[in-house]
Design goal:
Layout (H helix, E strand, L loop, with lengths): L9 H14 L8 H8 L4 E3 L2 E10 L4 E7 L10 E8 L14 H10 L3 E6 L5 E8 L2 E9 L8 E9 L1
Antiparallel strand pairs: 1-2, 2-3, 3-4, 4-8, 5-6, 6-7, 7-8
Length: 162
């Protein structure tokens, strides 16, 4: 999907996506017009599959963001949406320029009525956090900000299921 040129800040994009998550109640809220309404971002479509749409842009020389549907086989309309900060260096870049504090995000989701549960891997590490409210779930993936601040959990990706 082609990215839009929009030089926004990570904090701005984070607030826009949070507003979306706070307002998702079902699949209708993942429709293109609703995405535009809730985020203020222009949605683009894959000309070969109308179920594939989203938006994205460059934040820094190293970091981009993407907000795209994840249509499932046989689905008439998407029920999943992924938001991600994408490291274009391929070298595990410092997240400092795009750091969205996980604790702040988790508190905002809790205030919106979501309940959180950590999902653990086989070694006991947290793979991601599941946030659930009614029929909507949000998987929140985190990673350390950088080597020096490895314990500072930053949001790296969300998968919204409605």
């Amino acid at each position: 999907m082609e990215q839009t040129t929009s030089f926004r800040s990570a904090a701005d994009i984070g607030r826009r996506v949070l507003r979306l998550v706070e307002n998702v109640r079902g699949p209708d809220d993942l429709a293109p017009t609703r995405l535009e309404e809730l985020t203020g971002l222009k949605v683009q479509f894959n000309p070969e599959d109308a179920r594939e749409y989203g938006t994205g842009g460059q934040l820094t020389d190293t970091w981009a963001y993407n907000l795209v549907t994840l249509p499932q086989v046989g689905e008439a309309r998407p029920s999943q949406l992924m938001f991600s900060f994408d490291d274009e260096s391929g070298e595990n870049a410092d997240m400092g320029p795009v750091a969205l504090d996980f604790d702040d995000y988790a508190a905002a989701l809790a205030a919106a009525g979501y309940r959180s549960t950590p999902v653990h891997g086989r070694l006991g590490n947290i793979l991601h956090w599941d946030f659930a409210r009614d029929d909507v779930t949000v998987q929140v993936y985190v990673r350390g900000e950088n080597d020096e601040k490895a314990e500072h959990a930053c949001v790296s990706r969300l998968i919204i299921n409605a």
